[in-house]
Amino acid sequence: MANYLRLLKQSSQSKSSFFLFGPRGTGKTSWLKENFKNATYIDLLEDEIFNQLLANPGKLLNYIPENKKNEFVIIDEIQKVPKLLDEVHRLIELKNLKFILTGSNARKLKRVGVNLLAGRALTYEMYPLTATELKKDFDLKRALQYGTLPLSITGDEPKKFLQSYVRTYLKEEIQGEGLTRNLEAFARFLQTASFSQGAPLVISNIASEAGINRKVVEDYFSILRDLLLSVELPIFTKRSKRELITKRKFYYFDAGVYRSLRPVGPLDSDAEINSFALETLVLNEIRVLNDQMEMGYELFYWHTKDHLEVDFVIYGAKGFRAFEVKSAATIQSKDLQGLREFKKDYPQAKLYLLYGGSEEKVMESTIHLVPVTKFFKNPISYLVCQ
User: Fold this and answer.
1) pLDDT at position 110
2) Ranges 60-74, 116-130, 279-293: which has the least confidence
3) What is the mean pLDDT of residues 47-56?
4) Across-strand partners of 232?
5) List of long-range contacts for 341-347, beta carbons under 8 Å, 24+ apart
6) CA–CA separation, 194 and 282 (whole Å)
7) Distance in angstroms (rounded) separating the CA atoms of residues 70 and 72
């Protein structure tokens, strides 16, 4: 698998331990093995290691060779043995060892208390690949269909990989960790939730459509958040002049995972599904750049009770921007309505409409019409002051 230069910056010369979270398949292990080649690697997905450390976390030191105690110690999938955190904390304090702790499930760590390492370990997150990282290998058409998980980019059969990816999560994470006893209901929920991609979450509607109790559906969304499989954007309410909805906007974290989960029938429009996949790619680009380059933005969306909407609002010391995303190649006046009204309330904001056409221009003197292909060639230029 190709080793793309990730935006995440950490050096084997660093003196600080850190957590590296991210859904499975985002490339955490490959990145660590490439950038920390001398580290001791402890994989808790290996049954023998898992069983021994689960039974006796105090034996962790036995897995660290004497001649490598000045190097990092990587513990992969730390959430499988949360009690190891006590031992890690002890070894940081007493032996001055450095650890990298990876995880794809925050639920167990929350329950046990990840704050045991507060002040002793930094926290980073790994995301699907971005256009910025892929550079010339970024293929928008392929990304819309299969997303940007590393094996979706480099694999020969991305569709089969994504189908297997969903099954793996159901089997290994959901069933293996006992997060729910009813895998059939959870699988039905995953499909039903896909119809809410890029939309405000209405839990009662999803519960009704999936035939599942509302409280159970709320728990299922909590599982998605803990497994880092979803993104929920809050509504932008700062100095609001209008009545806004309060619901959060939902996305599966990767366009390919979304497409794999989304049922398609005769009444479904491929253009509509593509539109939400494109929003997901844009959101991923913004999230990763904002996080890994420490831009300090807060991410929101805007939606009034009379159905005016802006897909993404980023707000912070580096700027104030609003983005609307349309997959269509031509733009009509009605497509500008959300940005137009947002500008009335927030004249300080810079406005962008990303679309599937080829012409770049300014409309109505304030709305920058940008081909989405151009956005992906240099997305950072649209996130910082110009």
Assistant:
1) 65
2) 116-130
3) 95
4) 250
5) 341/304, 341/308, 342/302, 342/308, 342/310, 342/313, 343/367, 345/240, 345/241, 345/242, 346/320, 346/322
6) 17
7) 7
**Which residues, at least 6 apart from 22, have a Cβ–Cβ distance to it below 8 Å?**
28, 102, 104, 125, 126, 127, 228
362 in Cβ contact with 306 (< 8 Å): no
| pLDDT at 70 > cutoff 90 | no
Helix (H, G, I), strand (E, B) or coil at 154: helix
What integer is the mean pLDDT of 198-209?
A: 96
| Residue 69 parent element (H or E) | none
pLDDT tens across 365-385, in order? Answer: 999 999 999 999 999 999 986
- List of domains in the chain: 17-125 (3.40.50.300), 131-231+248-269 (no CATH), 284-382 (3.40.1350.10)
Specify whether the CB–CB gap between 304 and 244 falls below 8 A. Answer: yes
- pLDDT for the residue numbered 367: 97
Average pLDDT over every residue of 284-312: 96
- Rounded alpha-carbon distances, angstroms, from residue 296 to 256, 281, 286, 306, 318: 27, 20, 11, 31, 8
Nearest Cα to 129, choosing from 376, 300, 306?
A: 376
**What is the reported pLDDT for 59?**
94
Asked whether residue 182 carries a pLDDT value surpassing 90, the answer given is no
> Taking Cα atoms as reference points, which of 337, 335, 341, 340 lies closest to residue 354?
335
Residues 73 and 50: their CA atoms lie apart, in Å, by: 16
Query: How many residues can be counted in the chain?
Result: 386
Residue 176 has pLDDT above 90, yes or no: no
Cα–Cα distance, 207 to 193 (Å, whole number): 9
**Structure-block tokens of residue 55:** 């039974």
Q: Specify the amino acid at residue 71.
A: E
